[in-house]
Design brief:
alpha+beta; 6-stranded antiparallel beta sheet; 5 helices; 8 strands; globular
Length: 174
């Protein structure tokens, strides 16, 4: 059964309403974090709770580096969220040089991937290298509600310390 939008009962949605941006209770949620290893074939195990919550075996992956002071990571999401991001980017004119840089930066290392029978994603070589990951390296997989990140373990711990320091001020935004 499709949930109805709380703000606009006539819109009908599952996940995030494209009109009012409300979130339904049956939206896929990626919660928690796990220390794992990237295997020699560039595969990463996706937590079973995430696999059962999303009901899909397809994911979109992009290199993510919102702050140049941080090292990049891999951002994973349902393909529908990537499509939302593309729609948002397409609201900017093609002649906008900043928008063009963002389009190139995000799409250059992006990939649509599918889980194997064991619940693993295989990272494309270019995305793995661009994000500072290597086969057999220790990684952290971190849920971020509607998306997740895959980090080199050392890089994640550095970012996590910064997050902890910024938390008291950041939480005030809500």
């Amino acid at each position: 059964m499709t949930k109805k939008c709380r703000n606009r009962p006539d819109c009908g949605f599952k996940g995030r309403c494209r009109v009012c941006k409300a979130v339904s209770e049956d939206m896929t949620m990626f919660l928690g974090s796990q220390d794992l290893s990237l295997d020699v074939k560039r595969r990463v195990q996706i937590p079973s709770s995430w696999r059962s919550a999303c009901g899909s075996s397809k994911f979109a992956l992009v290199k993510w580096r919102p702050d140049l002071s941080q090292k990049p990571c891999v951002m994973g999401m349902m393909p529908s969220l990537l499509f939302d991001l593309v729609r948002k980017m397409n609201e900017r004119p093609f002649s906008d040089p900043e928008a063009e840089r963002v389009r190139r930066s995000l799409s250059r290392e992006a990939a649509l991937v599918e889980l194997d029978a064991s619940g693993r994603l295989t990272l494309p070589v270019s995305l793995m290298k661009a994000s500072g990951l290597e086969p057999r390296s220790k990684i952290v997989v971190v849920g971020m509600f509607d998306r997740f990140q895959i980090w080199n373990q050392e890089d994640y711990h550095a970012v996590s310390e910064e997050d902890d320091d910024a938390y008291p001020e950041a939480i005030k935004l809500f």
